[in-house]
Design brief:
alpha+beta, seven-stranded mixed β-sheet, 155 residues, Aminopeptidase, binds coenzyme A, 4 helices
């Protein structure tokens, strides 16, 4: 079905930071500060952006935790560009990139109330493994989702 529009995924660079921070602020009630978004460039990370018509419309970050565990840290799409396949393209590219860095398993946390993101992860083959009580600053619980790389559904 996807892509419904022309989506280009590429590695993020420092020059994208301002736009990434803008998307972050428009996507989360508790956005990562710019300093943290910058710090991920200096970690063993997969850091990618999605462009449509030459404009950055979304980004995703994953980091390697231990040798074979890829942690999906964040994924966000400009609110005006959602539900057109950008999040799906970002998530699959991020998993590909983490796999190329050695990841065989993937993990992420998502707000219990975030049904759009939960559906995205479920569609990509993630399974809900448990909850972390009061994970977020406002007290909301996190759902923990995991994926084994060898059971990824067809993209
Ligand atoms: C979650 C998010 C990244 C999805 O991005 P997107 O570009 O809209 O997603 P896509 O268009 O690629 O949709 C892929 C799948 O995600 C799910 N999905 C996306 N938006 C949805 C919505 N509003 N309601 C229900 N399911 C949704 C669907 O399963 C969809 O597949 P389908 O269209 O075949 O049903 C986006 O909503 C976002 O940036 N949200 C705010 C930030 C956030 O919550 N990030 C996740 C933090 S853990």
């Amino acid at each position: 079905m996807y892509p419904s529009k022309d989506i280009n995924i590429r590695s993020a660079s420092m020059a994208d930071l301002e736009r990434i921070a803008e998307i972050e602020r428009s996507s989360f009630s508790d956005p990562y500060p710019s300093g943290l978004l910058k710090a991920f460039f200096f970690m063993p990370s997969a850091y990618i952006v999605a462009e449509c018509g030459g404009r950055v419309v979304g980004y995703a970050i994953g980091i390697m935790r231990r040798e074979t565990l890829g942690h999906i840290v964040s994924i966000a799409v400009d609110p005006l560009e959602r539900q057109q396949g950008v999040g799906w393209a970002l998530l699959n590219s991020l998993i590909d990139k983490l796999e190329s860095m050695g990841a065989k398993r993937f993990r992420l946390e998502v707000r219990e109330s975030n049904s759009a993101a939960k559906r995205l992860y479920t569609k990509a083959g993630f399974k809900e493994k448990g909850k972390i009580k009061g994970y977020y600053q406002d007290g909301e619980d996190a759902a923990v989702f995991v994926l084994n790389g060898d059971v990824r559904p067809q993209k």
